[in-house]
């Protein structure tokens, strides 16, 4: 059985609902420590602000969105893959796409999000610093990482 190719294309406004759903489903796994109430607050920001304003690239399989990466200059603002598609190369393809566009990539990841941190390390990202709180001042340690092409 041949594996179908993943297509990566620019974000379109009609992707918003599907990508917001992917974000929430993936965040319930990777960011469960934030709690459901905080995730639902963030969902509105993702839908109304981050998706349309970042340089968002959508991974599709048979025309259906299965993940996305949001770039803000050379920073990965977020990368999320539908839980049923995780571990199948979608995230790697999105990172490779980002690397093809930018000479250097940086990101932040929650220290508690060990699986995602290990994913980034496997791809060659290295820790550059830590801070004890997240962007909202909550006590969730953030790790900054960088990758040079």
Name a few traits of the molecule.
single chain; 149 residues; alpha+beta; seven-stranded mixed β-sheet; 7 strands; 36% helix
What does this structure look like?
With 149 residues, the protein is α+β, with helices and mostly antiparallel strands. The protein is built from four helices and seven strands; from the N terminus they run βααβββαβαββ. β2 and β3 (64-72) form a beta hairpin. α1 crosses α2. The model has no long low-confidence stretch (mean pLDDT 93).
Largest sheet: 7 strands, mixed
CA gyration radius, whole angstroms: 15 Å
Category by helix and strand content: alpha+beta
Number of strands: 7
Low-confidence stretches: none
Strand line-up in the sheet with most strands? 1-2-3-4-5-7-6
Counting DSSP H or I runs of 4 or more residues, the number of helices is 4
Arithmetic mean pLDDT: 93
Q: Into which percentage range does the β-strand content fall?
A: 25-35%
Series of secondary-structure elements, N-terminal to C-terminal: EHHEEEHEHEE
Helix content: 25-40%
The end-to-end span amounts to 34 Å
Shape: globular
Q: What's the topology here?
A:
Blueprint: E1 7-10, H1 16-30, H2 36-53, E2 55-61, E3 64-72, E4 75-81, H3 90-101, E5 104-110, H4 114-122, E6 126-131, E7 142-148
Parallel strand pairs: 4-5
Antiparallel strand pairs: 1-2, 2-3, 3-4, 5-7, 6-7
Brief sketch in words of this structure:
The chain has 149 residues and is an alpha+beta fold. The protein has 4 helices and 7 strands.
